[in-house]
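REQUEST FORM: STRUCTURE PREDICTION
Request ID: SP-0412
Submitted by: Lab K.M.
Chain count: 1
Length (residues): 579
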Amino acid sequence: MAELNYLKELTLNFNLRKPTSKRPTNVYAVVKVCGKQIKIPTTCKINAYLWDSKKQVPMLLNNMSNAERDNAKQVFNIINSFQSAFSEYYCYFYQNFQEITSEEVRGFFEKNVLSKLMVNKNMAKNGVPNVKRERKATKALQKALELYPEVNDRGVKDSSIETYQRNLKNFINYCEDIKRDSVKMLTSKGLSDYEIWLRKRGKSNNLIRSSIRIVRILVNDVICKHPTFRNYGVEPLIVKLVKNIRSEGKQVELLDEEVAALENCKGLSPVQMEYRDLFLLECITGQRASDIPTLFNPSKYKIKDNYFSFITIKEKTPALVERTPKVLEIIDRYKDGFKHIDINNRFLSKYESINIKAIAKKAGLSRPISYQDNRRNIMSRPLFEIIASHFGRHTFCTKMARVVPIETLKYLTGHKTTQALKKYYIHQTDEDRINIVNEALNGEKKNETNKIDKNCNTLNELFAYDKLLNIEHAMKNDINFNTDSTRQAIEIIKNVVGLSSFSKDIDKEKVAALERVIFELSYYYRDAQLYSSYQYKEHYFGIIEKVASFDEINLLFANEDIERPKQILDNQIEEYENR
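STATUS: Completed
RESULT:
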């Protein structure tokens, strides 16, 4: 009789760990034996609203999703396996109930039930059995970026964090594109694949460098060191960054007449006038856009002798600004503050660059600038399209380097060393280099008028004179002129670098006689820059007074009938001959 009472106590039930949970919760098998309840995990989960607590089985409803239905079937099969095993070994419990312990019951089910079930122990949030989740690289990097200011002893500016976020967005796009996102990608091999992906999409070397660099920083400085990522298993990265290629020749010195044109430009809006004055102040002081507001705040500078003395924002180095009449005039003009712009805005340089382009266009700063971009392509664009706030600093450094030693110049500009000044800010012309050599050889600077006379080669070096005569002959005799020689002539004419090294004693009549063939070449190739460069050189040598704008030339070339442009050209030539 005692055995029967114990037998009644031998039961198997199934309960949910959290019956009121709104998420999938674990299902437990509860074995009652010898007055004790033994909980055994079934390694499965189910949503509480899909569990029949009376029947202790999952419910199958018509409105269930496919994922919920598949999971319910999986849970039902596991429960059946437990029940079948429990019935099969019922006799074993009956014969040995006085000797059975909790450990033995648990071991029995683990050996005879759980070990036979091919069930993944990790369940997805929707309840569907799933493979073990991998930690995502994108989430790890985003979390690391949040922690980066804490682990960086030097501190991080908000603007730097914004830049890092933009660069990190490229990695997120990469993961979405290849449909993979795992911390296992945070290896040297993974970043090599990332670099290949960036290159295939035509990204510049500078963007590739910055995109890979931020991943390396976050991995090495945060993920590998911060306790939040202790179990991520990520090793420090050793990555050779691609070489940072800077644009060469794009930031140039503004000529005196160009600065004067900006200063005297009419028809500017009140906002443009204030930005124009800031830019002029940069041209005559050599300060960064971020340091110009300091000159309008007496609490941030000291007056020593005839100089403003202050600490630069970017480098935290001392800088000096001479209190010239022009500097004091601009500062006094805004003694009551700026009415239309916020000079303390951290995007001041960006907004100033946008406005100075529009101002330069109104002022007619259309000098063609030839430069090499950061992809090593040779480009040529009018000055008003590429001018930016930093051109003022470049202009000041280049002009001052002609009259003061570079070691002295760094105290005015606030540079720590002269290395950056020499490498990036001083744009020496051929004339500058000749003067330096002459000074070294003779112990004194030569007079500006003592230039190397290259008059015998000027026509060919600047205007491809002999080549154009051959092209003109080919045009008149219906001979194919679309040759390599023609393309070389075009490149020579479009190159406006180093004009100051040539003597202005040139045969102006021969230069003017080239206008027709150059015009027809420009029209044939629809190359407004070619004709504009030719006119710019004519203007430099005093042959013409005004250079046509790009818009005027393009409008002229838009006419499909060349006879009309030719007629306009004839009128221009006739005007020149009459002069």
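NOTES: Residues 2-116 form one domain.
Reviewed by: T.R.
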